[in-house]
Amino acid sequence: MNAAPIKVPMILDRRRVLAGGGALIVSFSLTNGYAEDQGAPAVAAAPKPPGSLKDAPFLDSWIRIDADGKMTAFTGKAELGQGFKTAFQQIAAEEMDVPFASLTVITADTGHTANEGYTSGSHSMQDSGTAIQNAAAQVRALLVAEAARRFEVPEESLRTENGAVISFDGRRLGYGELVAGGMLHLQAQSKSKLKDPATFKVMGQPVARVDIPAKVTGGAAYVQDMRLPGMVHARIVRPPSYGAQLTACDMSATEKMPGIVNVLRDGNFLAVVAKQEFQAVKAMRVLSAAAKWQETASLPKQDDLLHVLTNLPSQDSTIFQQSNPAAVGAKTIEATYTRPYQSHGSIGPSCAVAQSVDGAMTVWTHTQGVYPDRQGIAEMLRVPLQSVRLIHVEGSGCYGHNGADDAAADAAVIARALPGVPVRVQWMREQEHGWEPYGPAMVTRLKASLDADGAIADWNFEVWSNTHSMRPGGAGSMLAAQHMAQPFAEPAPKPLPLPEGGGDRNAIPIYTFPNAHVVHHFIPAMPLRISAMRALGAYHNVFSIESFMDELAGLAGADPVEFRLKHLEDPRGRDVITKAAQGFGWLKGQKAPQGRGYGFAFARYKNLAAYCAIATEVEVNAETGHPRLVRAVAAVDSGQVVNPDGLTNQIEGAIVQSMSWTLYESVTFDDTRITSIDWQTYPILRFNSVPDRIDVHIINRPGLPFLGSGETGQGPAAASIANAITNATGKRLRNLPLTRKRIKDAIDA
Amino acid sequence: MMTLKVNGHDHQIESDPDTPLLYVLRDEIKLNAAKFGCGLGQCGACTVIVDGKAVLSCVTPVLLLEGKQVTTLEGLGTIDAPAPIQRAFMEEQAAQCGYCIAGMMMRAQALLQRNSKPTDEQIRVELEPNLCRCGTHMRILRAVHRAARLMDTADASSPMQGSAQ
Fold it and tell me: How far is CA A728 from CA A594, A619, A731, in A?
């Protein structure tokens, strides 16, 4: 766990750091002890170094070499199960020219690592991977220059190998011997001399993940597994619904229960703390029964989200416009697609550990953003930023903004009341399901015309959506702060700016159409608590675009793959489409066996990250409507590949998870309460629905920039499955999820 | 106070008898592998083996386990000397976040102990109580098949390896 080695909050100072035994970690921490404050001195318009180096330019923010040769790479990103901790280690080892195992990677920690904001949006490889790659290359160059000085030979005559610089006549200086003083406390150059990809030894290899051995042998691998000396266990009693007010709560019975350390009430925030974990669970139940709430019926109609969303006030903007009057449509079709609210559904409910020591608060959390959360928690506790430290420790996979940040805030509020005592807060299943911020419901309306040659002449796309991020920054984003007697107001939602976008992520078509018009209807009012969920609006927008492309291909009498290629200029996009079609054995006009259908879909995530095309075969039971994904073949281009098995794992997972979203999942609610609160009421896929096989073909692009790939599969998988269902049944389903009942109703219609 | 046998060792248990086994394993015996996922017996993250059978520890009161043999993932092998199923999951890289994996492995282990050569269909049916959210299912299936082969080899070469205790 990366919680070690520091167990209690400590403010680093120069003396303490330098007393560490000759280690070269004179990092940014020197100014006042916090990594965030390493502002780059003003430099007049020099070209900025790539990736996150542009915001955290000191090399020793990323690479540290101890006098004994021990090497560490630092990232401000959080390992969420994507495996990039291993990928970063590969990158650093490659560019440093050291064995993979000789490095360790330290992940997000406000006391140790650069501020890289959130681990989201498939940015980790692009931002942090690029920074580590360039920093490592520049550190290696500095070490070579230092060796040249000491050997009194030209740099060109030196080579690096196994963590040492070696001269032509066989003299050798280890990296640890070469580092001295503040040698790496230098600002990165804007350009690095990167290795020739043809010489890579570690990058591009399917190196085994560093975190898996502990996870399969019962090692301490998650924040849930932390056990600090004297740690106590807390449980929260949440309101039964949004906006519920606590009118009465007799805490006396709870206070008398065995093992109770504390019972807290602050406005609508209720918590119990006990010595043993199950004592806390029992106390939570008793306290919950004692709490009397006044609830308000404020939720919209779950089965009419189309009208709910399109009737809410919206801020409308045209985000793309293209005109060519020469292109004239002959045949026009239109369609409306909807997506419900959907849950992240982490298998492990959120958890955090916090400890307040001498006024300094440390929180161990599986948040995606230690720095933004630190800001929120400091504001909530009304303490200086510098007195709060957040350390990322892995949790269960989150796939976006789940309850992690709220649990971190819960832990901090409770730990404040128990100075010196480490407090572990564990959410219950129904709390995660009922209170996590969902992936927002969305509506898209499409209209397009084909010209006389069967090509798309004009394209109109409208999307209605909330924002796709209500992540912390301020305290008001956290439940504990909202529920206090002196609550913090939830910040006003904002649309996420293009080119990445939120509700309009991937709303602009990647295809070339002579006339195109894309409108984003941003809806500020949020009937349900929502925030970022894997791929944000791209999931539904790609589902809509790629379903509609098939509808248009059908209208044109064209093969879906051929039809896409006809409208796509981007050569890398064309390559993944061709590769996926080949891998699948896609043949123009080919009919699937009886009861089965073939589907195809493609997108470039955000129109600027990884390319992904997915072909699927789906079986539909004509009697029951039951759909089953039989097989999927994907092709992906994420630029230079660092770990092909890690990339394959991400794409396999994206297909399976998106299949579950697409076929089964919607948050349910009545007029007051969320009613999908566990795995019975919010079913997801089980092993009986797992496909026979998934094949992932990687198109490696040696030397090209890393392209984020963690979310690229979500949209294409959904549309490919939808298209296969249409191919199998002759019916088009446009409302997610594509449930057995909806398919059956469509077949019977 | 009752005695609970976990991974071959006797533990004197102080928790109340109605405490679910999961909390005793994690909170009192300080084992990590069995995970809290739902507390409702719906997800399988807490799966352990009791007398050879896969059991949902989050809904099993500890009082029912007197005199029984409880095995957790820690009892199968270690990071330095992994059991066949642990090796198999490492070799197949069968995890993303890995939170569900200990439960998956214990249910698969219970299957393999009574059926050393399960079909793909039998593995799928067996694992149905266990949820994975990362979508690592294809790898989990491959890992269970691999574990079956490894246990087969291990049994042939050394009868002691690959057993649950």
Answer: 8, 7, 8
- The pLDDT of A283-303, averaged and rounded, is 97
The verdict on whether omega for the bond into residue A737 sits within 30 degrees of 0, i.e. cis, is yes
Q: Does A390 touch chain B (CB under 8 A)?
A: no
Write the ipTM.
0.95
Find chain B residues with C-beta within 8 A of A217's C-beta: 33, 73-74, 77-79, 82, 86
Task: Provide, as residue numbers in chain A, all residues whose Cβ is less than 8 Å from the Cβ of B138.
Answer: 652, 656, 690-691, 693-694
B23–A218 CB contact, under 8 Å: no
Separation CA A299–CA A106 (nearest Å) = 43
Contact A690 B38 (CB under 8 A): no
Which of the four pLDDT bands, split at 50, 70 and 90, describes residue A45?
A: low
Q: Report strand pairing: B2-6 vs B9-13.
A: antiparallel
Nearest by CB to residue A217, choosing from B30, B78, B100, is B78
Cα A623 to Cα B75: distance, rounded to the nearest angstrom: 47
Q: What are phi and psi of A328, to 5 degrees?
A: -125, 130
Residues of A in contact with B37 (CB under 8 A): 347-349, 396, 429
The CA distance from A370 to the nearest CA of chain B, in Å, is: 19
- Nearest CA distance, B156 vs chain A (angstrom): 24
Given CATH 2.30.110.10, say whether it is the number of domain A223-296+344-435: no
Question: Does the pLDDT value for residue A424 go beyond 80?
Answer: yes
Chain B contact for A594 (CB, 8 A cutoff): no
Residues of chain B with Cβ-Cβ distance to A233 below 8 Å are 27
Average pLDDT over residues A196-207: 97
Q: Is residue A536 exposed (0-12), middle (13-18) or buried (19+ Cβ within 10 Å)?
A: buried
Alpha-carbon distance values, A297 to A172, A289, A309, A671 (Å): 74, 21, 18, 5
Taking a C-beta distance cutoff of 8 angstroms, is the pair B95, B136 a contact?
Answer: yes
pLDDT of the residue at B157? 55
Q: Residue window 76-105, chain A: list those with CB within 8 Å of chain B.
A: 80-83
Do the Cβ atoms of B133 and A684 come within 8 Å? yes
pLDDT digits (tens, 9 = 90+) for B21-48: 999 999 999 999 999 999 999 999 999 9
Asked whether residue A274 carries a pLDDT value surpassing 60, the answer given is yes
Query: If you average pLDDT over residues A470-485, what whole number do you get?
Result: 96
Task: Kindly determine whether residue A348 and residue B45, on different chains, have CB atoms separated by under 8 Å.
Answer: yes
Q: Where are the domains of chain A?
A: 14-211, 223-296+344-435, 442-468+503-748
Q: Looking at the predicted structure, is the pLDDT value of residue A480 above 90?
A: yes
- Whether A254 has a pLDDT exceeding 90, the answer reads yes
The crossing angle, in degrees rounded to 10, of helices A644-664 and A84-96 is 160
Check pLDDT > 90 for residue A367: yes
One fold for A14-211 and A442-468+503-748? yes
Q: Which residues of A fall within a CB distance of 8 Å from B123?
A: 687
Q: Hey, which CATH number is domain A442-468+503-748, 3.30.70.560, 1.20.1270.360, 3.30.70.3270, 3.30.365.10?
A: 3.30.365.10
How much is the pTM? 0.94
Chain A and chain B share a number of CB contacts under 8 A equal to 179
Q: pLDDT tens digits, residue range A113-163?
A: 999 999 998 899 999 999 999 999 999 999 999 999 999 999 999 999 999
User: Which domains, and CATH codes, for chain B?
Assistant: 2-74 (3.10.20.30), 84-157 (1.10.150.120)
Nearest CA in chain A to B72: A218
Q: Which CATH class is domain A14-211?
A: alpha beta
Q: Can you tell me the distance from the alpha carbon of A242 to that of A435, in angstroms, rounded to the nearest whole number?
A: 9
Torsion B120-B122-B128-B131 (CA) sign: negative
At a CB cut-off of 8 Å and minimum separation 6, what does A312 contact? A523, A525
